[in-house]
Amino acid sequence: MNYKSVVVTQRGGLESLKIVENELRAPAAGEVRVKILASPVCQDDVAVRVGNRPFLPKPPFTPGYSILGLVESLGEGVSGFSVGERVAALTTFGGHAEYIYLPAEKLVAVPAGLDPAEAVTLILNYLVAYQTMHRVAKVKAGDTILLIGASGGVGTALLQLGKLAGLKMYGLASPSKHPLLAEYGAIPIDYRSQDFVAVLRQAEPAGLDFVFNGMGEETFERGLAVLRKGGVLIHYGGPQSLSRMLLLIVKVIGYNLTGRKIEGYGTSRLGVELFKQDWNTSFEMLGQGQIKPIIAAKFPLLEAARGYELLESGAVSGNIVLIASELMK
């Protein structure tokens, strides 16, 4: 029996994608074979295809940063999971396929009542939002923040979590996305026609408590300019190469030496046990209706190219999710 996966055959555009067949094998010792139900499309999936990240595997490889699926088979020595149970994982690669093999320790159980397309967005985008807000910034009610990149998958998660936390929020977005920001109580700023530094200095002369930056390091200087003394810029965007990563580290150290605080965040920073704690918290919030992921579009699991094309258009607010064919009905 075989299964299909999306493969990046070479660095480049959508033309580098191919659907290939793989042999469906039994899981090895310690592994779980998961039938994938949902896998989001994210900026890192695009970046690894074109080569804009350090430490990348050489093509061919299957992209897909996170998954939610059903346990189909357990390898020798695996306990704590049962066949048919819903699970999810942060995979980095391999998610845009019909099946995936993962070490059991990477998996978290997912409550059966949650919508797979919504729940899978919690594994990366809401994880980043929750951890930057509550484990890095450690926000408290009444704090004033700016979201740079407020309308994407992480940005909309930050909007929802920020509203729950009682924060005063400003967000940068194009005018067509301003109603979405306002829906969550954020004050929108048009980054194309407005100087956000001038706007915020007038609106908040004492400065902001935090800036959450999901864009490049070119926004550091202006983001830092709107902070109060002792305020922090939290940067969660990935570096485009090893040289850019080293430059980013140097920039962060340099700014911090001058008393202008930048905290960097990456999903490798806090570890899978904290991931599981925060995923379970997010699952509870989703089940209770406290958060509601914005799903901009759904595509069949193997039609990842359509998802990438839409994401790269810049016209999306929220999340794009690839889902198994049986869920498309």
Strand content: 25-35%
Helix segment tally: 10
Number of domains: 2
User: Using only CA atoms, what is the Rg?
Assistant: 20 Å
Task: Please tell me the overall pLDDT.
Answer: 92
Low-confidence stretches: none
Number of strands: 15
Structural class: alpha/beta
- What is the overall shape? globular
One letter per element, helices H and strands E, the order comes to EEEHEEEEHHEHEHEHEHEHEHEHE
If you had to describe this structure to a student in words, what would you say it looks like?
The protein has 329 residues and is α/β, with parallel strands linked by helices. It folds into two domains: 2-123 and 292-327, Medium-chain alcohol dehydrogenases, catalytic domain (Quinone Oxidoreductase, Chain A, domain 1); 125-264, NAD(P)-binding Rossmann-like Domain (Rossmann fold), CATH 3.40.50. It has ten helices and 15 strands. The chain has helices at residues 43-50, 116-119, 125-136, 153-164, 178-183, 196-203, 220-224, 242-257, 272-287, 304-312; strands at residues 2-8, 17-23, 31-41, 66-74, 86-90, 99-103, 108-109, 144-148, 168-173, 187-190, 208-213, 227-235, 261-264, 295-300, 319-323. The strands form three sheets. Strands 3, 4, 5, 6, 7, 14 and 15 form a seven-stranded mixed sheet that branches. A six-stranded parallel sheet has the order 10-9-8-11-12-13, sandwiched between helices. Strands 1-2 form a two-stranded antiparallel ribbon. α3 packs across α4 and α3 crosses α9 (272-287). It is globular, with a radius of gyration of 20 Å. The model has no long low-confidence stretch (mean pLDDT 92).
